[in-house]
Amino acid sequence: MATAAARAAIGDSEFDRDTAVVPRADEPGTYDIDLSAGWTIIAAVNGGYLLAVLGRALRDALPHPDPLTITAHYLTASQPGPAVIRTQTLRAGRTMSTGQASLYQTDEQGREVERIRVIAGYGDLSALPDDVRTSATPPAMPSYADCVSSDDAPDDGPVTGSTAILERLDLRLDPATAGWAIGMPSGAGDMRGWLGLADGRDHDPLSLLLAVDALPPTAFDLGLKGWTPTLELTVHLRAVPAPGPLRVALTTRNLAGGLLEEDAEVWDSADRLVAQARQLARAPRG
Amino acid sequence: MATAAARAAIGDSEFDRDTAVVPRADEPGTYDIDLSAGWTIIAAVNGGYLLAVLGRALRDALPHPDPLTITAHYLTASQPGPAVIRTQTLRAGRTMSTGQASLYQTDEQGREVERIRVIAGYGDLSALPDDVRTSATPPAMPSYADCVSSDDAPDDGPVTGSTAILERLDLRLDPATAGWAIGMPSGAGDMRGWLGLADGRDHDPLSLLLAVDALPPTAFDLGLKGWTPTLELTVHLRAVPAPGPLRVALTTRNLAGGLLEEDAEVWDSADRLVAQARQLARAPRG
Questions:
Q1: Would you call B231 helix, strand, or coil by DSSP?
Q2: Which residues are in the Acyl-CoA thioesterase-like C-terminal domain (chains A, B) (predicted)?
Q3: What is the model's pLDDT at position B141?
Q4: Could you write out the DSSP letters of every residue in A18-44?
Q5: Nearest chain A CA: its distance from B115 CA (Å)
Q6: Where do the domains of chain B lie, and which CATH numbers do they carry?
Q7: What is the ipTM of this complex?
Q8: Where are the alpha helices (DSSP H) in chain B?
């Protein structure tokens, strides 16, 4: 983890650099990006990182800054390297706008292949009224100091392949949901942890899109091993996160027909529920 | 409620008639429909009915029959009357395909206005493997006979305007979540009920899209009155429902910034979790 002196700020961090999209001057609403290899896990580019990339393009294309609700369908596997994002504005209202974005890469035959399609409603989180009437409570979990880092894990855990993303996260798992790393999953289908960015950048609405898909999959806690490909991921951003690490709690209540849902709740240091997400994923065979 | 003798079958019911889409012979993937006034509530066409209409068009356009995950963004208010649906196939795989659909109506100036945009992943629910590992349990609620019908409600409840949809539903609310009808909301943000179709048609995957948005809004149980417009609704279908009425449980855990999420779980008569849904809606001012 970065020292306080070297702490990255929002706008000047690994996350900001690797999600930066470059608008094409001659094609309004079209953006180029070089997808970073720094956010891969196993053999794939992390789905939350990809969602943040598309979220940043829509943030530029739409008149409102924050994704209030954003849904991604993962069509084909993205690879590190060049990609183009095409956006479309569907509706621009006073308090909310709706847009669509697709990310494409060129395959070995030179054909453009769509990787992800996103549809989202954007607004301004900081302009929302102050009313909060919530019955939701933060997840019960140990303090940051009492949670475990991937540095503590043995080398023969269920993840084989790239773990590049772990170097960019400051992730501490609740020991109650980390037993899978030593072959003792709880079986409950839960995953909880503290989540910061390794370079010390605080969270903002865009990095919340990463946060909802940054923990190990709940399938590991169910005793399953292998890849859990996301078919669809929907995120609701509910508030601008306060500085400091987030608490992220994932739950799977229904694995059936080879599919599972993964529900995510993200809480900030001020005990505010800042994001809710749900994804439908294919369960690992293992 | 229909008598057993007059019981409508799947394919031959009010719901099937009113969601029937007519493919244009000369425009593949384009469909016409006359949106029925029979599924309106207050001043609006019900969002679940509209989702079922779009779901039926995609069912025709895509190579797989069932929406495994479907997301709708409600852009402008639909009106009863003619509409056109345009679909696009994004990806057609062996076990799953992905498509997009938009519903348009013509405004008073003769311009085509987009009402709803949907993106969905389709598969074949009856071809999924049989494995079920679920920790979810059906909602605790009284039997159908001990729940209350809208016929039991006083005339001065919070709903003013059309209640046409209620004539097409066989809806019985858990009395614990029906107090709002007599000015005594629980404040918890819950809504639970048994849900059939009034003409006796059993549920199928398409009518589950209606079911997730057919109960009164949880806002009523929070003591709020008025319209709760859906911004975005995502539904995951997890199994083909068994015959008989469904149990639908809605929960709101976070009302903040003028927005609320409404989570829906739908259980069939065989105690199987057949659908999970979440919507982001604007909270009523009242």
A1: strand
A2: 150-281
A3: 96
A4: HH--EE-TTSTTEEEEEE-GGGEEBTE
A5: 10
A6: 4-126 (2.40.160.210), 144-282 (2.40.160.210)
A7: 0.95
A8: 14-19, 47-61, 164-168, 205-211, 218-221
3-state secondary structure of B222: coil
**What does residue B88 show for φ and ψ, rounded to 5 degrees?**
-140, 130
- For chain A positions 3-62, those within 8 Å of chain B (CB to CB) are none
Taking the CA atoms of residue A212, residue A138, residue B212 and residue B35 in that order, the dihedral angle to the nearest 10 degrees is -70
Q: Which residue of chain B has the CA closest to A127?
A: B257
* CA R_g for chain A: 18
Distance of CA B24 to the CA centre of its chain: 26
CB atoms within 10 A of CB A122: 26
Mean pLDDT, consecutive 10-residue segments, chain A of 286 residues? 68 96 97 96 90 98 98 97 98 97 96 98 95 91 93 63 87 96 95 97 98 96 92 98 98 96 98 97 87
For tokens 């950048």, the residue is A201
Extract the tokens encoding A194: 């503290």
Q: Are A15 and A201 in contact (CB under 8 A)?
A: yes
- Residue indicated by tokens 């991921």: A233
In this complex, the residue of A75, A91, A280 whose CB is nearest that of residue B75 is: A91
Q: Residue B205 in 3-state DSSP?
A: helix
> Is B261 in contact with A236 (Cβ distance < 8 A)?
yes
B residues 207-226 lying closer than 8 A (beta carbon) to A:
222
List CB contacts (< 8 A) between B231 and chain A.
Answer: 68-69, 96, 121
For residue A75, count other CB atoms closer than 10 A to its CB: 19
**Cα(B280)–Cα(B286) distance, integer angstroms:** 18
Which residue of chain A comes nearest to B126, CA vs CA?
A: A257
Q: A68, B231: Cβ pair inside 8 Å?
A: yes
Residue A253 to residue B136, Cβ atoms within 8 A: yes
pLDDT tens for each residue of A116-144: 999 999 999 999 998 888 889 999 999 99
Residue type, A176: A
Among B50, B63, B68, CA closest to B120? B68
Position B247, amino acid: R
Helix (H, G, I), strand (E, B) or coil at B85: strand
